[in-house]
Design brief:
322 residues, alpha/beta, 7-stranded parallel sheet, 5-stranded parallel sheet, 13 helices, elongated, binds nicotinamide-adenine-dinucleotide
């Protein structure tokens, strides 16, 4: 019998997967935990894998290869949690869903920016505590201030368009982009140039080995205007200890994060209650519509791969030629 392993998920239920995969007459197995031992054991009898955030390590991929597994479908855009090189060695296709939530993440980024700029969280807390006072010093005009985007791909461009509509000046640093693609965005030659002039810094680069701790103490030292640092990309882009230190001593005026390292933030972590931090639980991708689309498209990749059709969005296309 065909078996599909779901390593982990964040959805209300798996009805969509059952519906999409019905033609395979497959058993759908949800891993009880996402540790490597459990996943390796379950992968050893799986012909297809659906993965959300769980690490699909070389050991898990090797175990799946022994079962003739043909596809690892990532629920999401980034696929840094899947050992793609190991999958490619075994001729296993890895897929992602690169564009299901671009508007949601851009909206969430602007939500964090606006909430930080308008002092929304302390104001709501004030009212909840039966007060009615305004934080006069902490709120500044948004129009005319500068947003630096680090990464100008699908999400970065959508943030740029929204930010321009709020009257922000938008600068972007992206070493792989020559044409900003959005009128009114200025490209910076270096990340340091972009950071130096920014009142808000927002990260939209992928989590690669090269980008690990892209924003560390040195990068924060290049930020000349005590900006709000926003991260809706991946936690590993930011050295969180350095960012907390900068928030505490005023080199950052705010920290607005949808993604952290580690994730979730440990209970009691200082950022959970920090007056100038806004932390959301890795939810930027989510809307009811985006999540349903994500489940359907990821499951369809498994169906296509296991019925001899080419997946729509392979990330290691070279295996298809074999
Ligand atoms: N929080 C969430 O729920 C959520 C949801 C979806 C995507 N994401 C994350 O958002 C990020 C952006 O996604 P996207 O769809 O726009 O990706 P994308 O691939 O379209 O764009 C990424 C851009 O970053 C650029 N880049 C790479 N390294 C860089 C560097 N060191 N400095 C500056 N730019 C660099 C690339 O050239 C590319 O243009 C990814 O990290 C993705 O994982 C988060």
């Amino acid at each position: 019998m065909t078996r599909i392993l779901i390593t982990d998920h964040v959805f209300p239920d798996l009805a969509i997967e059952h519906e999409v995969l019905a033609p395979l007459d497959a058993e759908i197995v949800l891993a009880p935990t996402a540790d490597e031992d459990t996943l390796a054991e379950l992968a050893a009898s799986a012909q297809g894998i659906l993965v959300c955030f769980a690490p699909v390590t070389e050991r898990v991929v090797d175990a799946a290869a022994a079962a003739g597994c043909g596809v690892i479908a990532r629920y999401g855009i980034g696929y840094d949690n899947v050992d793609v090189a190991a999958a490619t060695r075994h001729g296993m296709v890895v897929t992602n869903v690169p564009d299901y939530c671009l508007d949601e993440v851009a909206d969430h980024t602007m939500t964090l920016l606006l909430a930080a700029a308008r002092g929304l969280v302390p104001a709501v807390r004030e009212v909840a505590n039966d007060g009615w006072a305004i934080d006069h010093a902490g709120v500044h005009r948004i129009a005319g201030r500068t947003l630096a985007l680090v990464g100008l791909g699908g999400i970065g461009r959508r943030v740029a368009a929204r930010a321009l509509a709020f009257g922000l000046n938008v600068t972007a640093f992206d070493p792989f982009v020559d044409d900003p693609g959005v009128e009114g965005v200025a490209l910076a030659a270096t990340m340091a140039d972009a950071l130096a002039a920014a009142d808000f810094v927002s990260l939209h680069a992928p989590a690669t080995v090269e980008n690990h701790h892209l924003i560390d103490g040195d990068a924060i030292a290049q930020m000349g205007r005590r900006p709000v640092l926003i991260n809706t990309a991946r936690g590993s882009l930011v050295d969180l200890d350095a960012a907390v230190a900068a928030l505490d001593d005023g080199r950052l005026s705010g920290l607005a994060l949808d993604v952290t390292e580690p994730e979730p933030l440990p209970p009691g972590h200082p950022l959970r209650r920090h007056p100038r931090a806004i932390i959301t639980p890795h939810m930027a991708f989510h809307s009811v519509e985006a999540t349903e689309e994500l489940q359907r498209r990821a499951a369809t990749e498994v169906l296509r791969a296991l019925t001899g059709l080419e997946p729509a969005r392979p990330v290691n296309r070279e295996v298809l030629a074999r």
